[in-house]
Design brief:
It contains three helices and three strands; from the N terminus they run H-E-H-E-H-E. Strand 1, helix 2 and strand 2 form a beta-alpha-beta unit. The chain has about 130 residues and is α/β, with parallel strands linked by helices. It is about 25% helix and about 10% strand. Helix 1 crosses helix 2. A three-stranded parallel beta sheet has the order 1-2-3, sandwiched between helices. The chain is globular.
Length: about 130
């Protein structure tokens, strides 16, 4: 589920959108709230599930995009692999993906590079300096 507008948060709409078959959820926040129990979106997801009486859904919260890193398929795979561990107690929570967090040591291992495009596709990045 992609949240496009964080506020106002409507718990009932979130619960209606989340299929009943879901047993595990990874919430990715692009903020770092060190003094809080969790990041804002993670807290809203947990509160929504509680208010809608959706018991049995495990929620793991994590951070991405820190240090201006783009979110890559490799990072998505690391989050999925973390969430899909057989034993819920072994799921790393909270976690950070995309940087080596040497302070909290919460970084997920990224594994091998993932390229979702065919090898015949060329990718380019072009920069403009504004004086063109």
């Amino acid at each position: 589920i992609g949240v496009r507008l964080f506020r106002p948060w409507i718990p009932l709409e979130f619960c209606k959108t989340l299929p009943m078959s879901v047993k595990r959820v990874a919430v990715l926040d692009r903020t770092k709230e060190s003094a809080a129990q969790g990041e804002p979106l993670y807290m809203d997801v947990c509160a929504s599930l509680m208010s809608c009486k959706r018991v049995g859904v495990f929620v793991a919260g994590g951070r991405y995009g820190l240090a201006s890193k783009d979110f890559s398929p490799r990072m998505a795979m690391a989050v999925i692999q973390n969430l899909m561990k057989k034993d819920i107690e072994s799921v790393q929570h909270p976690f950070t993906v995309g940087i080596i967090d040497d302070v909290t040591r919460l970084s997920l291992p990224l594994g091998r590079e993932i390229t979702p495009l065919d090898s015949s596709v060329n990718q380019c990045v072009f920069w403009g300096f504004g004086s063109d």
